[in-house]
Amino acid sequence: QVQLVESGGGLAQPGGSLRLSCAASGFTFSSYAMSWARQVPGKGLEWVSGIFSDGSDTYYADSVKGRFTISRDNAQNTLYLQMDSLKPEDTALYYCVKDKHTRGQGTQVTVSS
Q1: Which of 61, 64, 68, 112 has the fewest CB atoms within 10 Å, counting from its CB?
Q2: How deeply is 87 buried, as exposed, middle or buried, from its count of CB atoms within 10 A (0-12, 13-18, 19+)?
Q3: Are 109 and 81 in contact (CB under 8 A)?
Q4: pLDDT for the residue numbered 56
Q5: Which SS3 state, helix, strand or coil, does residue 88 take?
Q6: Average pLDDT, whole number, for the chain?
Q7: Which tens digit of pLDDT belongs to each residue from 5-36?
Q8: Per-residue pLDDT reduced to its tens digit, 49-60
Q9: 27 Cβ contact partners less than 8 Å away, ≥ 6 residues apart
């Protein structure tokens, strides 16, 4: 079955960096566009970034543009999100998303001094 397992979250200081990873299995990873989304308790899911199946194009929410970089390694079935210049408002549970019905369990990112 489809599995998406996120890792790399944690505590970072404002201005710091974290790199999230998502290990995918159970489907042909290289055939699917993938995304990252985040959620704060009490709020809806916010789309953060997306990438084409072959990595040829990427998209970002205005709130993270210029600070976050999405990438993928299709040989390793892994999706990444490099997060730089982190802000307290980036604090959220971050999900790796295959489609509207399929996402991982999430990894918590907390940005605080």
Answers
A1: 112
A2: middle
A3: no
A4: 94
A5: helix
A6: 97
A7: 999 999 999 999 999 999 999 999 999 999 99
A8: 999 999 999 999
A9: 2, 98
SS3 89: helix
Extract the tokens encoding 13. Answer: 């200081």
Beta bridge partners of 35: 50, 97
Instruction: Kindly write down the DSSP assignment for every residue of 9-32, as one continuous string.
Output: -EEE-TT--EEEEEEEESS-GGGS
DSSP letter at 67 equals T
CB 38 within 8 A of CB 9: no
Residues ≥6 apart with Cβ < 8 Å to 33:
50, 51, 52, 53
pLDDT at 16: 98
